[in-house]
Amino acid sequence: MRKERSVFAERHPLVSLVYLAGALSITMLTMHPLILGLSFLLSGGYVLLLQGKKAGRYTLWMLLPLLFFSSVILPLFSHNGVTPLFYINDMAVTLESVLYGAVMSLLLVSVFQWFQVWRQLLDEERFLYLFGRGLPAAALLLSMALRLLPLLHRRYREIHDAQRGMGRDGGAMTFWKRGKLLLKELSILISWSLENSITTSMSMESRGYGSGKRTSFHLFVFGWEDGAWLVLLLLLFGGCILIIGQGGFAARYFPAVSEMPWGRSQTAGLCCFGAGAGLPLLWDLLHLEGDNCQSWGKETEE
Hints:
302 residues; mainly alpha
């Protein structure tokens, strides 16, 4: 991760953990469209800031099929609801099913985007620092799992580029030859990963992993600024979760869309969530200037 892209990532790992856990928890605790819409916008903005325009386009292309499937395909098979829009073979396609599918797809994409932010703010080193002492095996397993997909994707790109360098370009091949090339690339990827896992296990064994109590070295220091961030995030997210627990953002879509009353508590909860999830993004935007902003703009165009 490029450190200059996120000043907030330089805070203590506990602050990043509380921020991401709060944003994810509130996103998954309610089906209220305003909360999910705000979560989608803030997480999407943070992904754009941290990973560039390419990640934003990837998220958009992922959202469109998911939105189409949830809002168009699923209502054809799920006929719950009391407001029919039209009939197909005497089966009603209801407004409630369409709205529920759209809101559910918004929730899934928001959670996906928050996990993309998680990958940037909490890397393997920070994750092991937070959980390595209490749950060393689980922390190691989760850190390796979080690292696996990006690593496989990077290795596959290297294999694919090497095949193209040898003149095996899939665009100039027939369908069956492209399929054989894909299988060959996947076989190389699996073999490479297995060999790497053997090397990793031998390295861990030679360094005494699992033989006794281990110590670790880190440079993380919890300062007063980290404490201020931690208290602020706990107050903001805690206030929003308290309002959700009291039913302030209750939303039902079956059998009919329930009324979603709006008052001071809902306004306060939305502001708390927006401030808690948006302050780190605003903090990074304010500090992204000069050479850092120019380098970020160049990388996003690659």
